[in-house]
Amino acid sequence: MDPAVIGYGAFAAVIVLLALRVPIAFALAGVASLGTLLIFATRTGDLMLERAIRPTTSLVFSNSFDLIHSYDLSMIPLFVALGHIAYRAEITTRIYHAARVWLAPVPGGVAMASVVGCGGFSAITGSSIACASTMGRICAPEMLRMGYDKRLATASVAAGGTLGSLIPPSVLFIIYGIFTETSISALFLAGILPGILSLAGFLLVIFVWVSRDPAAAPRYTDAISFAEKREAALGAWPAVLLFVIIVGGIYGGIFTATEAAAICVSAAVLIGFLQRRLSLRGLWAAVRETCLQTTAIFLIAAAAKIFVAFIALTGVAGDIVGAVQAAELSPVLLLTAIALIYLVLGMFLDPIGIMVLTLPLMVPLVETYGFDLIWFGVVVIKLLEIGLITPPVGLNVFVIAGVVGREVGIDRIFSGILRFLSVDVIVLILIMAFPILSLLIPGSM
Predict the structure, then answer these.
(1) 8 A C-beta contact, residue 22 and residue 350
(2) Looking at residues 292-316, what average pLDDT do you find?
(3) Mind listing the pLDDT tens digit for each residue in 136-150?
(4) What is the DSSP letter of 165?
(5) Which of 11, 119, 338, 442 has the greatest number of CB atoms lying within 10 Å of its CB?
(6) Helix crossing, 316-327 with 280-314: angle to 10°?
(7) Phi-psi category of 139—alpha, beta or left, where left has phi over 0 and alpha has psi -120 to 50?
(8) Strand ranges (DSSP E) for 146-257?
């Protein structure tokens, strides 16, 4: 049997399994293992399964073993732990509190504070789903209680939660860097300007929304003294310190991304205990949650590595690159096609599943056109970020819907999301049209 036919069939099978909500790790590893077995068993034309068992097990175990022992992968549990510890030490929530105090008098200020809080939370945790879940519990109920438009109250947090994909540190950037063998430190720095641009765009959406419909965001009438503002701003210093360690240390060449993560975890624990906001019970809970989340990510990464090796065995990537070259597509048409593929997949699949499914094909393709893989990484993460709030799946939307319960229907949240999606598309076009937005900071290292 032609290996390429097996490869195309494997892609179709994985997409179907993921659409049926089969866990990503099981779908990728299962299909890749079965496909590899078929390739080795039919090499001579006859089906001889007993001859294919040893090479198949060798490929599966060697690739998963090599990945799990990768040095770069060690930063994932560190950054995941940092997010959980910072949350339990109230480091992340105090970012929102500071933004809340300073922006409350501004029309739509609480919604803006929610987006800023999501950006600050993302700058420490690196997880969009965790950001939407945590900030949703804090921000959305408060805005609903204040009389905010239900669409604005929920959509602002759902959209703000996506910033965790782009603002460093980002788990998606780590996975992308490992599978494309690009510098994770450079990817972190490349996401800063696009992340800030996205955050500014969300704030602009809220400002225009409230300007056109003042009833959507009732004004905050209580007076806030300068002393209260100063106290709230000073209370956010731990979050600022951690972000400076991560970004400043990497940019200055002082730390690698892994070293910065380890230092920040130690600093977060120390700050939490010194401020008496973190207990031993809270630390243990954070460690337990970190172990569970890291195990899931590692299983997905190991399965993806097996799938990548299988795709290399089939030669599918070479066939697609050859077909695109023969079609003589312009760079603009190629990028448009790639964007459409990611946007369509984002309507049905989760970000990690999309990434590990498409990278084996996309990376050889963009390398053929001479695109910078750091810049392309930012484009991919931005596309995945858009997928988090794109109907009908929109994982962040479902997270927020779970937080607010029956008070706000999913259809109402999606109707509010459309305004933020328009800004996301504009930012995406800017990133694709002007690579300097992504490459300026890493290029100046």
Answers:
(1) no
(2) 83
(3) 788 888 888 888 888
(4) G
(5) 119
(6) 70
(7) alpha
(8) none
Q: What is the DSSP string of 290-330?
A: HHHHHHHHHHHHHHHHHHHHHHHHHTHHHHHHHHHHHHT--
What is the rounded average pLDDT of the residues 81-105? 84
2-6, 33-37, 191-195, range with the lowest pLDDT: 2-6
Look at residue 194 in the predicted model and tell me its pLDDT: 93
Give the residue from 335, 417, 346 showing the smallest Cα distance to 379: 335
Q: What is the DSSP letter of 410?
A: H
Do 237 and 271 form a contact (C-beta atoms < 8 A)? no
Interval 111-135: pLDDT, tens:
888 888 888 777 776 667 777 777 7
- Model pLDDT, residue 373: 93
- Residue 43: is it exposed, middle or buried by C-beta count within 10 angstroms (0-12/13-18/19+)? middle
Checking 143-149 for CB contacts under 8 A at 24+ apart, the result is 143/110, 143/111, 143/114, 144/404, 144/407, 144/408, 146/110, 146/218, 146/220, 147/218, 148/110, 148/111, 148/216, 148/217, 148/218, 149/213, 149/215, 149/216, 149/217, 149/416
pLDDT tens, residue by residue, 203-238: 999 999 998 988 888 877 666 777 888 888 888 888
The whole-angstrom separation of Cα 225 and Cα 233 is 13
* C-beta pairs of 240-244 under 8 Å, 24+ apart in sequence: 241/267, 241/271, 242/82, 242/86, 242/91, 242/123, 242/124, 242/267, 242/268, 243/120, 243/123, 243/124
Residue type, position 439, single letter: L
How many helices (H) and strands (E) the chain has is answered by 23, 0
Reported as a pLDDT band with limits 50, 70 and 90, residue 44 is low
What does the block give as tokens for 28? 């990728």
Q: Which residue in this structure is represented by tokens 């992504």?
A: 438
Distance (Å, rounded) from C-alpha 137 to C-alpha 290? 20
Asked if pLDDT for residue 364 goes beyond 80, the answer is: yes
Chain position carrying tokens 């780590």? 174
Region of residue 45 (phi > 0: left; psi between -120 and 50: alpha; otherwise: beta): left
